[in-house]
Amino acid sequence: MIAYITLGTNDLKKAADYYDNLLEGLGAKRVFDYDTFVAWAVAEGTPMFSVIKPYDGNAATVGNGVMIALHAPDHATVDALHAKALALGGTDEGAPGVREGGYYSGYFRDLDGNKLNFFCA
Known about the structure:
The protein is α/β, with parallel strands linked by helices. It has a single domain (4-55, 62-120), classed as 2,3-Dihydroxybiphenyl 1,2-Dioxygenase, domain 1 (Roll). 21% of the residues lie in helices and 37% in strands. The chain is built from two helices and eight strands; from the N terminus they run E-H-E-E-E-E-H-E-E-E. It has helices at 12-23, 75-87, and strands at residues 4-8, 29-33, 37-41, 48-52, 67-71, 91-98, 104-109, 115-120. The protein has a four-stranded mixed sheet, with helices on one face. A four-stranded mixed sheet has the order 5-8-7-6. A hairpin with a 6-residue loop joins strand 3 and strand 4 (48-52).
């Protein structure tokens, strides 16, 4: 059902470099690379993840209550990608572990303060 997810950024180059490094752990590659917009996907026709400079020209801000969950194949990948997100300059929002419902996830904020997590069943 989801075709793509877009997060606003105030520094496209910095955000694109961050996600190039982070999303390679899921096998994602850049599928779009423009002056105001960069997107990644695992394969053609799969959902995309993207960062964009806001169309209205105003500063990008974090959505209160917004979080994006990125599926990982196993606990080891969740652990590794959560650690990498922090090593690349992200901040910890909850170390990897089992959560309600039996999901295993690790939460972090990216360089612009957007909240994400990597998870697996």
